[in-house]
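Entry type: protein chain
Record version: 2
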Amino acid sequence: MIPNDGIGCYQGPILKCKGLLPCYKHFHEKLNSKSYAYHSDIILLCTAVTTALITGLLYAYSCSVNPGLGKLPAEGYIAAMQSINRAIQNPLFFLSFMGTAILLPVCTYMHYHHPLPAKFYLLLTATILYLGGVLGVTILGNIPLNDALDNLIPLLQMLLKTAKQKIVFMQQWNAFILSVLSSLL
């Protein structure tokens, strides 16, 4: 059993409260320090920036990109979506997208103290909405749809090849029929 100092601080060779997740006692000691407040503000700022970047991307996409793509013919829509899906997979997007998923819970935890401030509840709400509504929807919905769309390339190429073969066949068939008919006349 790990010794307990009576205040809720478990200190032992495996669980040390002064690590990433400090106990209640040490959390409040850190909370009252200027260094902790400075780091808390820096993390809050980084969280706000990454969240704003992703929110802006989603807003612009829903207000302009989706309506614009919706006016394209099917072939153009598929090609444009495939191009967008490939272009968005880059380190800068990944940093802001996954950075928000990491920073929001960390920032929420850093603002957890008694009495619970309104900032904590706002961060908790933002964390739940982002993890479920953005990250969850992306992983469970958008990525499978994008993969299915990406698999249309071989199918479309096969259909295009078949259509070209049909045209060649029809031209040869018609030429043959015309030559037979003209030789009969």
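Comment: The helical segments are 24-31, 34-70, 74-87, 91-110, 118-150, 152-184.
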